[in-house]
Amino acid sequence: MLINKVVGLFSLDLGIDLGTANTLVCVRGRGIVLNEPSVVAVKKGTNSVLLEGNAVGHTAKVMLGKAPGPIDVIRPMKDGVIADFDIAEAMLTYFIKKAHNRKRWFSPRVLIAIPSGITPVEKRAVFNAAERAGSRKVYLVEEPRAAALGAGLPIHEPAGNMIVDVGGGTTEIAVISLADVVTSTSLRVAGDAMDEAISQHMRRNYNILIGDNTAERIKIQIGSAYPLEEEYTMVVRGRDLIAGLPRAVTVNSEEIREALREPVQAIVHAVRATLEKTPPELSADLVERGMVLCGGGVLLRGLDKVINEETGLPVYFAEDPLTCVARGTGMFLEQFEQFEPILETLEADV
Predict the structure, then answer these.
(1) Which of 26, 169, 233, 291 would be 20's cystine partner, CB 3.0–4.6 Å?
(2) 155 domain residue, yes or no
(3) Beta 22-27 vs 13-18: how paired, if at all?
(4) pLDDT by residue (tens digit) across 278-302?
(5) What gap in Å lies between CA 3 and CA 20, rounded to an integer?
């Protein structure tokens, strides 16, 4: 115990939101120090990161869909879990080194937020990747718990607190009381599924192939889940699937809203399903307290109105919804001695 305390004086504790779209790193006592896309560029057919390890994050994302043959641009996270272990390890190594600053003598203690519906195999992959990336000790915490704490909800109270976290790969919905998850739903439909729905719409209705970045721009600029007071239009450029040539078309927010109907309804149904599993006393709390939305996906215009109409509960946005999970991991680290019994750790693979 004394050794751990001494080591802690010379090391940083890091909280990591290892997201499908973005990875955020929070340093205990300093807040969020890193927020970069979960993207890595490597030499084709290898796990060798380009540019001496610098082709990670923002540098790699601008290469998506534009890299020449010898370069693979990879998103190692899919649906909130690791899809490519070696690339995820390389990405984590880069982010941990960048946040920790290797001038320090000891490796950091790391707390990683994971989806509540993750399987034991997927959990082991996250743990092993973080450990091999240079962590001294790895702890895991459920994303809804971290998100609720980061959103400022009084999760320690004996009362119902509901959080809806729509990320890139997963939607995490939970009702929390006394710092523990009472009921939850983890849905692998979120921001990426919305982008894919837009890409399918462009292919089906215009015979145009667009990339992931273009689909995301359409979602951000004119996407909505609820009718707008003023509808928008946007010029979209892609490759004509018939002629094989570049082509531009104009799309409007109404058709994009229709394209997004399926993933939006899946999220709404998951919210309802979670409420139906909630004990009656906690349900009574939610009538007054409502639910809090966080994650990048909740920024879709009108999503809060759709959820409000479907559930009848008050719906609020967290302050800075994109960083709730990362800030929550930082708050867990600030009160580490108090929270350590509820954090999960695994023994290393031999």
Answers:
(1) 169
(2) no
(3) antiparallel
(4) 999 999 999 999 999 999 999 999 9
(5) 36
